[in-house]
Amino acid sequence: MLCKFGIQIDSMLQLFVQCPWVLNMKFPKNLQKSVDFLTQIGMEAFDIARVVSSCPEILGASSCQSAAIVLSTMNLSAARLCNIIKDDPMQFGTLVSKKKIAAVTKIDSFYLGEKAEFLLKIGFIENSDDMVKAMSHFRGRGDQLQERLDCLVDAGLDYEDACSMIKVAPFILNMSVSMIKKKISYILNDIGYTLESVVAFPAIFGYSLEKMKLRFMMYKWLTENGVKIKPTNKNKVNKSMVALSTIMACSDVRFVKQFVNLHPGGLDQWQRLKNCSTIQ
C-alpha cells in the first residue's frame, strides 16, 4: 500500500526500523481510513500522495474521526482543513486522529538515538534538563529535524543563529519544510523585514500565516492612511521599522486598542480584513 503512494523501498525499510509497530495489522486499515478522510475533505490525489509519503506513521497510527465530526468540532470548512493538512501534514495527528499520536506511537532506541545525536550537534548538553525536554518536544526523525534546520540555513540564516532560534522556539522544528519556507518568504518578501529581525524574534514562527497577514495588512492600512506609528526600542536591528514582536506579540484586544483605534475608520477596516476570504 505504501508503494502506491510513491514511497521508496529504502524509505519503507527505514520506517519499519524506526516505527516497527507499523507492521501491525491495524496500520494499513488506519492508513486507508485516513486516505478516505483526505478524499472526503476534497484533497486532490497528488496532494494525498504527498501527505502520505511525508508522514505515513502519523496517518496509520490511529483510526481517524469522521470528516463531519472533525469539521463540526473544529468549526472549519473542508477546504480550510484541507489546506491546513497540506501545509503541515503533521497536523493530521493532532486534528483528525482519535488518539494522541504520542500515546500510540512507539519509538525505538534507534529513533531516540538519532534524535539525541541531532540535538547534541546543535548545541544541547547531553543528559541536561533542556535536552530531555527537547527530546519529548520535537516530533520527527533526526533526518527530518535536520531537514527543517537546513531549510532555515538555506534561507540565509547563519547556522549558529538558526540553532539559537531553535533553542528559544523549538516548535519551529515541528513545522513542515514547506510551511517554514512560506513564513520566511512572507516575512522577507511581502512585509520587507530582514533575517536579523527573524533572529531577534523567532517566536514569529508560532503565528499562523493568516494571523501575520491580518496584523500586517492592518498595520499597512493604518500607515497608508496617515497614522504615524513610532518604532519602539524593541527593534534593535532596524530602528526605522516597528519590531515584529510589537505587531505580533500581543492579544487581539491589545492590538485593537494600541493600533486599530488610532484611526477613526480603523475598527471597520479591521473587521473587513477579518472577514476577507483571502485571509481566513
From TrEMBL:
InterPro entries: MTERF, MTERF_sf. Gene3D superfamilies: Transcription termination factor 3, mitochondrial. The keyword Membrane does not apply. SMART domains: Mterf. Keywords: Transcription, Transcription regulation, Transcription termination, Transit peptide. It comes from the Eukaryota. One of its GO terms (molecular function) is nucleic acid binding. The keyword Transcription regulation applies. GO terms for biological process: DNA-templated transcription termination. Belongs to the mTERF family. This is mTERF domain-containing protein 1, mitochondrial.
